[in-house]
TrEMBL record:
It comes from the Bacteria. Residues 812-882 form the Alpha-L-rhamnosidase C-terminal domain. Residues 354-453 form the Alpha-L-rhamnosidase concanavalin-like domain. Residues 1-20 form the signal peptide. Residues 460-804 form the Alpha-L-rhamnosidase six-hairpin glycosidase domain. Residues 174-344 form the Bacterial alpha-L-rhamnosidase N-terminal domain. This is alpha-L-rhamnosidase. It holds the Pfam family Ig_Rha78A_N. Keywords: Hydrolase, Signal. Its EC number is 3.2.1.40. One of its GO terms (molecular function) is hydrolase activity. InterPro entries: 6-hairpin_glycosidase_sf, 6hp_glycosidase-like_sf, Alpha_rhamnosid, Bac_rhamnosid6H, Bac_rhamnosid_C, Bac_rhamnosid_N, Galactose-bd-like_sf, Ig-like_fold.
Amino acid sequence: MKHIIINIVFLLGLATSCLAQRNELASLRCEMLDNPEGIDVSQPRLSWEIGSSKRNTVQTAYQILVSSSLEKLNANDGDVWNSGKVNSSQSIHVLYNGIPLVSKAAYYWKVKVWTNYMELPWSVANGWSMGILNSKEWKAKWIGWEKPFAWDSVTKFSRLSARYFRKPFETTAAVKRATVYVSGMGLYELYINGKKIGDQVLAPSPTDFTKNVKYNTFDVTENIQRGKNVIATVLGNGRFFTMRQNYKPQKIKTFGFPKMILQLEIEYADGKRATIVSDDTWKLSGDGPIRSNNEYDGEEYDARKEMNGWNNTSFNDSKWRKPELVQAPGGNLEAQMNELVKVMGHVKPVSIKEQKPGIYIMDMGQNMAGWIKLRVRGKAGDSVVLRFGESLKPDGELYTRNLRDAISTDKYILKGKGPEEWRPSFVYHGFRFVEISNYPGIPSVADFEGDVVYDGINTISIFETSNQTINQVYKNAWWGIASNYKGMPIDCPQRNERMPWLGDRATGAYGESFIFDNAKLYAKWLDDIEAAQKPDGAIPDVAPAYWNYYSDNVTWPGTYFLIADMLYHQFGDAKPIEKHYPSMKKWMEYMRSKYMKNDLITKDKYGDWCVPPESKELIHSKDSLRNTDGVLIATASYYRLLTLMKGFATMLGKTDDVAEYDSLGEKIKIAFNNQFFDKNTNRYSNNTVTANLLPLYFGMVPEQYRQQVFSNITDKIVKENNSHISTGVIGTQWLMRGLTYNGQADIAYTLASNKDYPSWGYMVENGATTIWELWNGNTANPEMNSQNHIMLLGDLIVWYYENLAGIKSDDKQVAFKKIIMKPSFVKGLDYANASYLSMYGTIKSSWKRNSNAIEWNVVVPPNCKAEIHFPVDKKNIVESGSSIESADGVKYIGEQGKQEVYEIGSGVYSFTIND
């Protein structure tokens, strides 16, 4: 019998904790989070993954041991928790149920699994450490300097230098364990004895700092030396010292000057303990090399101001000043459980060309978010200026009008001592092209490298087809999504915005979850949204609410509900629904009481945002026949949210709420159809695709009219729009699935593969390497034509995986416990190949046309099953060379529509579908 491999995952709301240990029987899947430190809940959840090539492998029981030491765990002493043998197939989100966990303690665990085939050996050890569970355990003080230095400028275009802190300390014995807890507002870098701690950048994750503040935890045992030590930090401005001070104070929220809190806890081998905390015994300087750092405008670094050894023990800090004890930001200190931002890749420039004497344009070949590392040699005082942009003017100059007033410029001043290397610390840019000026000598591509910067989230899937337009759109989507992960999902990485707009991610987050393991990021973002909710229930359009935009529409705040549902559907995590249900209910009642008249929601702000305009120079269409009634959008979307809330209430056992939502939904449906539906033409409102699609997809159309309404949608697309897209942000969220579920996957494929305006392929044909903000992003007014947005993706990525490839989770047995495999073998596509790393393991679906047959290879992970659909009679289906009726692990379910449906257990399958 083959070995069955167990992969262990520790989850706190999907926060993975892992130890990098392996053997021939078990391996840990550690891709989700490299730092397993600082878990700050009392009941973490544990998950594991079983790997087996044997068909129909199912877990029948498990046993979990949690120990206070690795030695005890290795001796099978679960002194913290021994679950005993539990007869259950549950392998994700198993709630810890041992003795109370102790603040700052380290724990170790392993699991034994029984399957329907065998009892498996214990897995390898895994571990995590607890964070600071009680605020009273924080002995450290917030320190900073509550004013600018003489060389700083606090204006609309602020220039504020970085602040440098250091604290010497001594150790007297061998260190058994050392842990540092740190939060630096707005951003920090941490050093011990001259070595940078961690590979994170732009930390910690941004929040509304008056509501909550994230701290990070690091095991620094190996960094502490016996005798003299020094711990040091640098503080950048980030979102804390806001980029535009004293500018539109009613719109832009500001927080103050940078500040930090740090607590280093040392446990010696002899049992004694010591604590080093931030207080006014530290030393501070603002006169270092980082002269300015501003997320919109860039970073200026003067290497002549470097303080050699400032973060090491031998440095003389007698001229540094004492920091001030400062007011805390106001928000609760919380452990950061979402991934840290990191340098996730590198891009080599493809060319450098002289545009004017002394002015060079560097092309990275890819629109990206991050920064440039440079290598340069020159004399002291020489300065290299890097100016960033997404595209070029016709004459080859850098195009920056679409950045608005973001200066987006880095400056490096040389110290003149041989070869020098530099990258910024506290800014990032969205760019493809870089204008290089003042470079001493002639720059070459070998002197530069692009660092790709986004949250440390692994790519968990592959997707490719025989259509190169679709492949490039998918690649562009990957780059756009990665570019806009910055501890929160932002809209764009380049201009003076970079805001976490809710509407951009409503369905987008769902599609992203197929590409990236984004569960922790979005769980964190739901907390940001809840924190931004007003006492009366209002939810903002941007959260954290750095901008004071509470426009009381339905579609943008509705993202709050859709993402909670996504986390449950894709990752099996019901906690966000349970946690946020009261806030969701509060908002539903707020909108109902304030804006519902005659059972219709009368308030909308954005309409079907960014429909393709009639002129390619326009940002928004002015043609009323292209635009959808805002009351229709608001009411239909509210009805959709009622449907979700009914499901949430059912899950949580809130029967009174279920009845209330049911009753209200029926009233809204009747009023909606009375107001907008024309029975003579079978059209809703002015017959836009969005006007008809929303009620059809949301289940509001009376059954006897559904086909006629859908015919109006297809007629509009095919006849009036020449098989091109005509929807904006709202309609596109449901478009591809709406067409496919109603039997027109071929039309969806045409939309996906079009190359002319308006289409995703049009962006590709016009040189896009990410997704544009506008369908006409190459010609529209530069006030709003970001070339790195993802809001127009709608449900395209969902459609790629669920409908083209056939990898979809069941709605009831979620997180791919049961997989619905129903690919659309659309005309014109020769093959589709996809894999997806689910909570249970890797799912694969790969089909290819071959003469008069389709070869379809499928992998279902252990402890899962799949419902698999074939568009032909069973006599034309072969599995691994044999009739499907005699295939091992295949069970006939019946006929659905015009398809034959089977159930398969885990394993590898090879089907041949003969025409």
